[in-house]
Design a protein that fits this description.
Layout: H1 2-24, H2 48-65, H3 73-99, H4 115-132, H5 138-155, H6 167-176, H7 195-214, H8 217-238, H9 251-270, H10 280-286, H11 288-304, H12 307-318, H13 322-346
Helix pairs in contact: 1-2, 1-9, 1-10, 1-11, 1-13, 2-4, 2-7, 2-9, 3-4, 3-11, 4-7, 5-7, 7-8, 7-9, 8-9, 10-13, 11-13, 12-13
């Protein structure tokens, strides 16, 4: 059963990473569903990163349960080492983006936050929770974190599309300075304050991981499905006062996206035997973070040296419709990343970041 459960998780992880690469690498005008929501609201594109955080929560439970959640110097050291590594890789991606443009040592404008940095912090806090806190407090902790964050958003004007009044932007700018933040939205979408609700997000995945690890396949699927249903209902009820918003990682966004991820995970757990011969998503799932990092660096290189222009022009010559040509480019980019993943998968090389 442990092998089967990991297989179902690999499939969902692979689906999510392939989706992340697809939506991040369109060209020019793309379909609206492949773009992030401007502010309030949610598109299919907005699901991919929250799905990954949910999956990470499941992985945290399964990984640490193998050590019976025992606290040891080596375990804490490994968690801290991985946290630093993930955060450093995120900084490297941000630096690499500047470096290919010639700004090799412009550290005064290096963005401090990003996807990998948020993954690092959430991994650290949830792992520490798993080791040092009784797991019966998982749900109360989730509730407290989301309630505290909701109060912060309401009292701190957290939904304002104004960097000067939004509490999330003000705190990040005060702590880190304007030059170290993301500038294409009123708030840095991976800023420090939003980590509060993101930790609750990963804890929901952690709780689902417990259901998967401690029940047989059918019961696990039913319990995870029930959790997903409750999250979706609760999340949409919250939208009446706290709209869905990925950029501020609102509590309603946490619950709805976790709920959808839980439903999909429940489906995959229930269909374990049918995934035995599946290859495409297993390739992405086996080296998920490594392939994602590769895709980010490759995209930067493609843009810097205009490789993406050449590929898109060739595709557009065959496909006259702009949006479909953009989708074709994104799918081509996914195929390139798949090729790398396939080589690693065939050689049984698993890069653990």
């Amino acid at each position: 059963m442990a092998k089967q459960r990991l297989l179902s998780l690999d499939i969902l992880r692979g689906l999510t990473v392939a989706g992340m690469i697809l939506v991040n690498n369109g060209y020019g005008e793309s379909f609206e569903m492949l773009g992030h929501s401007k502010w309030n609201g949610m598109t299919p594109c907005d699901l991919v990163f929250p799905f990954f955080l949910f999956i990470m929560g499941i992985s945290c439970y399964l990984s640490l349960s193998g050590r019976q959640f025992s606290v040891s110097r080596s375990t804490v050291y490994k968690i801290c080492k991985r946290t630093v590594l993930l955060f450093a890789i995120g900084l490297f991606i941000n630096w690499f983006h500047m470096a290919v443009k010639g700004d090799l040592i412009d550290f005064a404008h290096l963005r401090l936050w990003g996807v990998m940095q948020r993954i690092a912090l959430c991994y650290f806090f949830v792992s520490m929770f798993a080791l040092f806190v009784n797991h019966r407090y998982t749900i109360p902790t989730i509730v407290v974190l989301l309630a505290a964050y909701a109060m912060l958003l309401v009292m701190g004007n957290g939904y304002a599309e104004d960097a000067d009044t939004n509490i999330l932007s003000r705190v990040d700018r005060w702590l880190f300075g304007y030059d170290h933040l993301y500038h294409k939205s009123p708030v840095d979408p991976e800023g420090l304050v939003g980590t509060l609700s993101s930790v609750a997000h990963v804890l929901i995945g952690f709780y689902c991981g417990k259901m998967i690890a401690t029940h047989d396949r059918v019961q696990a699927a039913l319990k995870v499905f029930a959790i997903g249903t409750v999250c979706i209902v609760a999340g949409y009820m919250l939208t009446y006062g706290l709209p869905l918003n990925k950029r501020v990682w609102s509590p309603s966004f946490v619950l709805v996206t976790c709920g959808l991820a839980a439903l999909l995970q429940a489906l995959f757990v229930n269909l374990e035997e049918r995934w035995q011969k599946e290859t495409f998503f297993r390739v992405f799932g086996a080296n998920a973070l490594a392939i994602y990092v590769f895709s980010e660096l490759l995209a930067i290189v493609f843009h810097r040296f205009e490789v993406h222009d050449a590929i898109y022009a060739a595709l557009h010559a065959i496909i006259p419709w702009v949006k479909w040509a953009s989708l074709a480019y994104a799918m081509t980019f996914v195929a390139i990343c798949y090729a790398l993943g396939y080589v690693l998968y065939r050689k049984r090389i698993y890069i653990k970041l």
